[in-house]
Amino acid sequence: MADSDSDTEWKKWPCSKWTESHVSTWLKSIGIKEKYIQKLCEEEVTGPILLGLKRKYLSQTISMRSAQIEHLLLKRDELLMPEPTKVQKENSPQGGHNAQRNGEETSELSAAGVSTQEVQNKNEKKALQSHHPNNESHIGALPCHEYRTFCEDDKNFRYVKHKVLPPETGNDNMIVPCHEYKSLENAHKLESRKLKIKVAREVLRFGCGCMNMRANGTIHFGIMDKVTGIHKHGEIIGIPVRDKEDFIDALDYIENCFKKTKQKVDARKCIRNPKFIEVIDTDDSEERFVIEYDIVPQASVVKNELYSVCIPYLDMKDMKLKHEDKAFYQRIGANTLCLPDDDLVDFIHGLKEKDQQREVDELSVDQTIFVCNEDLKRNLSILLTGGTQCMDNSLFYIIVTNKFQPEHLKSIDFLVHMKIFSVFDFDPDSKTSGLCAMYKEKHAANLHFLHDYIKDLSTADLMKQLQLCDRTSWIFCNGRSDFDGGEETLDDKTWIKTKKKQLKKAVSVICNEILPKGSFVVIFLLMSEVEQPLVETFHEFYSEMSGHDYLTVISESRENYLKWSNLAQTSCSITTLNEISIVDMSWSHVNTSVQSVQLSVNRPTRCLPVIKGGLCDLKSVDEDMLHSLEIVSVDQCDDTNLEMMDEGKIKDIEQHFYQGGKIDWMNLWLADKKLCGESIQRDAFRQTNDILEGIVQSSNVKRSIESVKICHHPGSGGSTVARQILWSWRKKIRSAVVKQSNEITTVCEHALSLREYEEKDKNRALPVLLLLEDCNDDYLDDVRRELGNAIATKKISSSLLCFVLLTCKRCHDPERMCRALPSQTVAVTHRLTQDEKTLFSKKLELLKLQFKPDFILTFVLMSDGFQRSYIEDFVKNLLHKIDHSSLITRLIRFVALLNCYIHDSYMSVSHCEASLGIGMLVEQTRFYRFVDSLSEEARLIFIHFRESTQISSIRIIHPLVAKEILRQLSTNRPQSEIAMDLLQDKVLIEHKFAKDPFLKFIRTLFIRRNKISKGDNVNSTFSPLIEKVITEREGVQKAVDLLKAAYAALGKDAFVAQQLARLLYSYTRFEEALHWAEEAKSQLPYDTFVLDTLGQVYKKWFYHLHDTLEEQELEPQKVSEVINIALKGITAFRASEKAPKKETVSLNNSYYGEVDVGCRLLKLLSMVNVFATKDGNSELMNYLLTDYIPETVQKPWQKFHGLLKGLQKSMYHALECISEDLSYFQKDISEEDEELDTREPEQVHNPRKWLTRKCAVYANLFCHVSDVGTHSERVTSFQRQMRAYKLGGGNITSIFSLLNDLMTERTGKKLEEIISMYPENPNRNDLDETELVNFLLCQVALACTWPGSSKLLTLEKLQKLCLRFSLEGKYTSSASALFLVSILFWPATNNEERNSANSQVLMSAIDALQKLFEHKITNVPLRNRRIVTHFFLGKAMGLYKIVHRSALEKQIKGTISERRLKWLGGEVWTNPEVVQLLKRVEGWTEGGHLFVRANTKGSKIRVFPRNSASLPNSNENVTFYLGFSFDGAVAFDIQVK
User: What is the pLDDT of residues 1444-1476, one digit of tens each?
Assistant: First the structure.
């Protein structure tokens, strides 16, 4: 049934309203081939475009064959032909009327002096044209045009070429003029004398007829008076006019043609001078005119007179002017005919009656100014609201205006309260003295030019750069007088040459990429004389919006409007323009009328609480500047116009919430006003409120930035609790919702401005409560850090509470998340407490009195505790009779799939319409038409809302309902097929509006993995959808096919190809995995994750081959292929490591893969028979570490010898690189990176532990420690290195890991054992640099863990060993060496006597360390630059002055999350044990830098504050705690002395 309705839908609408879908359906019905239909659909041929299709376009662009073109054009014209024309065409032969016209033209041209042969040739040519097969005679129904107002000289009136005037008429009424057309298509080329005679013949004949009939009339020259092969009757063609005097002088024949003196005088009075009406033709620059003569036979002039005229003609023999015999003319129907002699007497007798009727008709005409009785206010309301009752925030407005007059600027209040998206302003003085200046007093606006919209950016980037949707975009379209950048005002012609293309682009971007149809109204304000650029803007909007829907014109001046309408009619008929225009309504009345239908009363300010208990005004213009925050004011919603809020609207708002919509401030405001029922406050509200009260009202402030977290099941009401909290606290402290689409720095800047707004003392201001909904931990940490920096920069006291971050986050296990930080976390689950059940039950009974249960379904489900059986039964009953083959069911499947797997997913109404084939035919009823097209089941489960303030969207009422719908529908159609249908739906995938968020949902569907760390129940290897599909029959292949389809649908997304490679190698399909890894690499050749995946393919392939080897004796030949795969993996990882980091998104992870493969490969080599003997290990070491090659492997491994012999060094290098990264940075991985990371979980979440373990494996494979004696003198450097690796002292990160061991005795013994490997009293040249670094760090670590050890050397001895390191020049030592120098050479006290040389060593080391760090972070993303501080300066002396971070950690109590907050909030530095342990260093600030004094006179050492904002702005003496990290010496807790 649905398909049948769709097939006939086009019949219900005029062709001008057809969508692409209607056109396609009609083309099918007339038998056009499918391939041509598809091409026309891809070219977006709608009904209006179909009307103008040309043969050339169909042939060249669509590649249609001739027969198909002829058939299409013929059927198109038959379709568009008016019904009377169709009947006439069918019932009468072609040519009767035309033959008469042709005959008339022949005789008339002959009389004017054109030879008979010329006339005959022209007629034959026309006949050929009308029957020629290639002639595009059937051009469809041309648009109609109105007449010029009779007897008025309207200078602004224009005709539009190829539009059609109404048929020629007779005189049904003596006052309403009759009309007669003459084309002069050929006659206009006559020389001056002949042309005058031709015009005079027609005018005098017509004039005489009208005068005798006592009827007004107009004869038009330049209008087709017959149907030809290329023109229609009444079509406006216009004619070139060489000399206007020819048409004026044609009336001079009156004296010779009217014989009686009185009749000559009367004819002069009745036949008015010609009017030359310009004809507009956008395709032709030639100037053309329609020439019109009005005939006005007033009763006082023509009474009792019968007029005769002698029509002039030119005798072709002697070329003399002659006259026909005197004749009387009359108008019969649409013709002017000679009065027969037989009828003359009767006609004369009837003149008296005609005179009397003429007098009566003239008296009855109202000569006063026409007053329109239509309700302009009502029309204005309908045009601006789209037909709804009031003007709310559901629509954007685009204003197009020219220069405002000063008196008009006093009445712009209605504009101030509109949600204006952009203003196209043609007033260059608007910024200084016009509308822009007045508007900016009330609201903020971003000032742009047309060229700002012409940038090679994606839509999202353009919107972000221009801040569209945040503030009004004020576009100066023709210069800006106050701008110093050279934007000059241009004349019309220059503007069209230079600016029109820019205008077209700007309008196209807004209409086709940013704002969906039906989401905005364009208002043209004609405030001064109209110029062509303003009209061009109308043409562009009319074209891009496919018609006049949602276009409005307002003009106080009728003169301005008439000029406008005559110029604008090339796009839109005068009749249609009149329908969308408000004219002659005073501007002050417009202002008052619009305000009367605005839902919000215009108020310039809102109220905020202040510290002393009062209120302050928040100006609208100031609020606009804080666009990253949705501020909740004390008087939120108080500006609502209650007169516009009838009971039905209030009921709709309430029902929307209880059906599953997000709670709005209006819901809470209406409840406070007792205009609707109160919303239930769950127990979580009370718990959150108690935590907030404890924070805000506490006299002992611990942190200036506090956090409260609400973790909730999806759909359990967590976001409602959060917004109820903001609502209840809005009068106590300042509150706002963070718009996370903005930069974090912007958010923090605005938050600080909100806190200090109208507050005199920054240290005495109310805290700000900021709500962050569903933000990830990275974002929250960054906000906290930026706010902390800002607080420190402002020198706000740390003992003052400034911000409370209220986070509301979905998760599948809220209670577990709550246990991690119980003092600041509240869990909201689907389960109701007993008290909540009572509240919900009572509320449900009240709601059932107002609403049907099906329409408050979410509340019904919540009242029942979301019992699975209830949801199952509801969905089962809902889907019982559903048509599984219908388009609506298909749409339900798609939305359920998205909502089930992706939080906050939705589908735009525009996408839904495209999917259902619904055309946007009547924009005013767009959404209601969409709703009407839905089945009853779909209406119950879909809820409508607006996303990002502009995208009208739908989703299923609750995630659990979506999940159950998908489960039950999957029994009929598996989820793999549903997902494949979605991916292969080109209409949805390629749909323009809301394309970015829709494709983002599709991408998330196939990439996002479940993570326990994010609140999911389990960790998943792939996206939940893929893992679900894998469980189906032949599921792996279905999953592969899905990812391939997703890769194509998402425009060859490299990360989808990466996931496909992961899936394939997980199921041992390595050749295919390799192909897709290479495909991903071709798309993103420098991306770390993509490049690493290629190595992972080889790694998994190698593991598989290794694990499937038979346990029997392995021969070199048998393992050759396995070794080959392993070495390819190592090569791939190395290529990733060496790739340019221009596009890197994280630190290079490929070193981990290289170490993994290397360790497994070494194990394999040790199992080969030649190396598996008693002495095999030594044989293997000789092979790998020397030039020796065993004979048995010489030939089988000839391709691998070089790579295998370099294996030890490459693994060592990889381990050192990993160690260096871990020594620099904290290894917290972002959620975004975690989706793409292919490493093992241990590598991601505990890399230091992984490194220690791998170092031991690596060392164990290269030497047997037990084979080496215990005396260090007998140990070679390599053996010592391997043993140190095995014990955990092979690199600095492993040694740092030992320091984190809580068993200090065990750590001490292990460190002593490592130190014993080195000479007891080494000289600086006894060890290479790497060994020396490890030895020194082991000494420092041993001093920290086991101060009484006999293995410890003195500080002076260690400093002497450090002199081995190079601190300057090209061959500067490693960062680890420089780090140790900075620790060991830093003086223990401020007054310690310093060695000048030592001081110079220290300064050189810190300087070199900083340079290395700056180079290190060049390609590291900001979020990964969290530096680890390893040691602090303590109060002890000598080597014991060095305090490891673990010593501080032991003093900090609480869970991991709580300890982390104490580090972030600076509470660590107030801990008594920490204060007792650490030494405060004295220094000073100078020029924004921090220094301590060096030993050399006048020299100083720069220290870098870990929190740069904590540095005083002025030059001060300060103290601080000193830390040591790989970016140099750093300062904590800086205090002014």
Answer: 998 998 888 877 777 877 787 778 888 899 999
Q: Tell me the one-letter amino acid at 736.
A: A
pLDDT at residue number 1403: 87
Q: How far apart are CA 1010 and CA 1027, in angstroms?
A: 11
Residue type, 316: M
* CA distances from residue 656 to 661, 725, 847, 858, 953 in whole angstroms, order as listed: 5, 21, 13, 10, 14
What phi, psi does 659 have (nearest 5°)?
-85, -10
Which residue's entry shows tokens 């029994």? 971
Q: pTM of the predicted model, to two decimals?
A: 0.68
Strands 907-908 and 951-956 come out as antiparallel
What DSSP line would sit under 243-303, residue for residue? -THHHHHGGGGHHHH--SHHHHHHHHHHBPPPEEEEEE-TT--S-EEEEEEEE---HHHHT
Report whether 890 contacts 969 (CB < 8 A): no
User: By C-alpha distance, which of 325, 270, 331, 328 is closest to 299?
Assistant: 270
What are the start-end ranges of the E strands in 367-502? Answer: 396-401, 420-425, 445-449, 472-476
Q: What is the rounded CA–CA span in Å between residue 995 and residue 980? A: 18
Structural tokens at position 350: 């009837």
Residues 6+ apart with CB under 8 A from 797: 704, 763
Q: Tell me if residue 467 falls in helix, strand or coil.
A: coil
DSSP result, 1371-1428: TPPPHHHHHHHHHHTS-SSTT----HHHHHHHHHHHHHHHHHHHHHGGGS-GGG--B-
Tens of pLDDT, residues 235-291: 999 999 999 999 999 999 999 999 899 999 999 999 999 999 999 887 777 899 999
In total, the chain counts a number of residues equal to 1537
Torsion over CA: 857, 863, 864, 868 (sign): positive
Q: What is the pLDDT of residue 1240?
A: 58
Question: Is pLDDT of 1423 > 60?
Answer: no
Return the C-alpha torsion angle 1385, 1386, 1391, 1397, nearest 10. 40
| Residue 29, pLDDT score | 84
Query: In terms of Cα–Cα distance, which of 1173, 1096, 1082 is closest to 1132?
Result: 1096
**How far from each other are the two terminal CA atoms of the chain, in whole angstroms?**
85
Segment 26-54 mean pLDDT = 83
Longest dimension (CA), the chain: 150
Of 460, 426, 466, the closest CA to residue 445 belongs to 466
Alpha helices in 511-585 (DSSP H): 532-544, 558-568, 574-579
Q: Are 1251 and 1218 a contacting pair, CB within 8 Å?
A: yes
Two structure tokens written together for 52: 């103008």
- Reference 953, options 976, 930, 925; nearest CA is 930
The whole-number pLDDT of residue 1265 equals 36
1269: left (phi over 0), alpha (psi -120 to 50) or beta: beta
Give the distance, in angstroms, between the CA of residue 375 and the centroid of all CA atoms in the same chain. Answer: 40
Rounded to 5 degrees, φ, ψ at 1128 are: -65, -40
Closest CA to 8 of 21, 23, 25, 32: 25
| pLDDT higher than threshold 50 for residue 322 | yes
C-alpha distances in angstroms, 466 versus 395, 396, 452, 471, 1080?
20, 17, 8, 9, 33
The two three-digit tokens of residue 1026, written as one number: 């893929």
DSSP state of 1495: S
The one-letter amino acid code at 760 reads K
